[in-house]
Amino acid sequence: MRRITRIATVGIASAALALSATACGGKKSSDSPSSDGSASSSAAGAAIAYDIGGRGDQSFNDAAFAGLEKAEKDLKIKTAEAEPTEGESEADKVQRLTELARKGNNPVIGVGFAYAPAIKKVAAKFPKTTFGIIDDTSVTDKNIANLVFNEEQGSYLAGVAAAKASKSGTVGFIGGVEVPLIKKFEAGFTQGVKDTNPNAKVLTKYLSQPPDFGGFAKPDLGKAAAKGQIDGGADVIYAAAGLAGSGAIEAAATSGKWAIGVDSDQYNQAGLSKYKDKILTSVTKDVSDAVYNLIKSVKDGKPESGEVRYGLDKDGVGLADSNPEYKNNADLIAAVDKAKADIIAKKITVKTTP
């Protein structure tokens, strides 16, 4: 059975208290790892530590949860989850991952690049535990699996779709935080728009700058940014902003404009159902399968390690086609399909920086 701990306060002490109840089942573990750095009990199952916004973000974290949930059902394993704290430090992340590993969970997966420094520290202390990190290749070790995606390729397709759907010739991109990962989304989207309509205009807005990562967690910021771009003439808005992206979708939909979702097929997400008719498509990242595949590899005794990349060629990224308006737009679909084929055939090289 899975348990989830939602931590309401900040700090190592409070995190430790809350996470002491996070791991599920298994034999009783001691308060510290064994001398060889392995977990001190038999594996409790798989665990994930969520990124900013936590479970329920209708996007990145929920996609990771879907993979964990599938593993729990299909592989008959126990699972654990841990939520982030607002304004948390690296020490908080280290504490969270340490507790999950100490309880015997294997693998332990950090959802998002922000976990990189913490995973580097904790993985060295638990060499017999596999650690997964999504969207990062900066930390490597024999027991670390780097689960990464060609976000720029999926975003290129979104740019093609946006250019085809736009009537004003102006579209918008909203990034949660101005970091290299999100710039991949911007770069691909802008290139796709411009390759489809060289005269199109792309408005770009980032919600926060590091070390402030609040741009991934505040729907009001996304909503305000989208309204600003709509006032500037944009009639299609693509937001790569985690939970803040839901605010952008709301603003676009209530203004009668198109929204493009991210990470998961947001047309089918319950929390956005009232806006679904205006969610033209979503750039999907198969975070769910990446999480599931890593968990299965550990269970099978052949744990993944190193870079595990998911691109268009493996359907690791792509565009959702749930909206009937998308399905019925033959010109748009033809343009997207051609772009996809050309990227896979390496006739188009998608930029990773704007």
TrEMBL record:
Keywords: Cell membrane, Lipoprotein, Membrane, Signal. PROSITE patterns: PROKAR_LIPOPROTEIN. It comes from the Bacteria. It is found in: Cell membrane. InterPro entries: BMP_lipoprotein, Peripla_BP_I, PnrA-like. Its main location: membrane. PANTHER family: ABC TRANSPORTER GUANOSINE-BINDING PROTEIN NUPN, TRANSCRIPTIONAL ACTIVATOR PROTEIN MED. This is BMP family ABC transporter substrate-binding protein. The lineage of its organism: Bacteria, Bacillati, Actinomycetota, Actinomycetes, Kitasatosporales.
